[in-house]
Design goal:
54% of the residues lie in helices and 15% in strands. By secondary structure, the chain is α+β, with helices and mostly antiparallel strands. It has a 5-stranded antiparallel beta sheet with strand order 2-3-1-4-5, sandwiched between helices. The protein starts with a helix and ends with a helix.
C-alpha cells in the first residue's frame, strides 16, 4: 500500500530533524539481510545511541537536502539504511563496521562528517574516533603530564637524600 502524502512529509520531517542534530551519517546497503538480522542491527544501533532508519531514496534525498549530509544524495541508490550519530561522531561507524564484519551482505556505501563525503573504506578511521569522554580524558592527561613531571622533579632531591642515608645506614654494622 503506497504511503499517503502526509505520511511522506512526516517521514521527511523526522529524518530531517535527526539529520540537523547529527554529527555524522552513514549510508549502507542492506540487500539480502533477513528481518531478524536487521532487527539485531537496529538493537545494536539503539544501544549505541545511533538513529537507524530505512527510508525510500527519494524521501531520504529530500530529508538530507539543506543539511550537512546533502552530499549523501549521490550514493542513495538501491535498498539503503541511514544511520545517524547524534552524540558521538564515531558511534554509527562503530556499529555499522562491527556489524559488517560478521554480516557480508551489509555494505557501507559512504560516510559523511561535517558536509564531507568519505569513502566507505574510511569507515574504520571514523570508527576509531574517540568518544567525548575519551577525548576529555586524553586532553586531561596531556595537561596533567607536565605538572606531575614537575612534582617528581621537585621531590627527587629529597628522595635521593633519603635513599643515600638509608644506604649508609645499611652499610654500617649494627652497633
Amino acid at each position: 500500500m503506497p504511503l499517503k502524502l502526509e505520511d511522506k512529509r512526516a517521514i521527511v520531517a523526522a529524518v530531517n530533524e535527526i539529520a540537523n542534530r547529527a554529527h555524522s551519517a552513514i549510508v549502507a546497503e542492506y540487500r539480502g539481510i533477513t528481518c531478524a538480522e536487521m532487527t539485531q542491527l537496529r538493537q545494536g544501533a539503539r544501544g549505541a545511541g545511533v538513529y537507524l532508519r530505512v527510508v525510500r531514496n527519494t524521501l531520504a534525498r529530500r530529508a538530507v537536502k539543506n543539511t550537512d549530509f546533502e552530499c549523501l544524495s549521490e550514493i542513495l541508490v538501491g535498498p539503503v539504511a541511514l544511520a545517524f550519530s547524534i552524540d558521538d561522531p564515531g558511534a554509527a561507524a562503530r556499529v555499522m563496521s562491527e556489524y559488517a564484519k560478521t554480516h557480508d551482505k551489509l555494505i557501507v556505501k559512504g560516510v559523511s562528517i561535517s558536509g564531507r563525503l568519505l569513502l566507505a573504506s574510511e569507515i574504520d578511521f571514523v570508527a576509531k574516533l574517540p568518544t567525548h569522554t575519551e577525548a576529555i580524558s586524553m586532553l586531561m592527561s596531556v595537561i596533567q603530564a607536565p605538572i606531575s613531571k614537575l612534582v617528581r622533579t621537585l621531590a627527587e632531591p629529597h628522595a635521593k637524600l633519603v635513599r643515600t642515608l638509608a644506604a649508609v645506614h645499611d652499610s654500617k654494622p649494627n652497633q
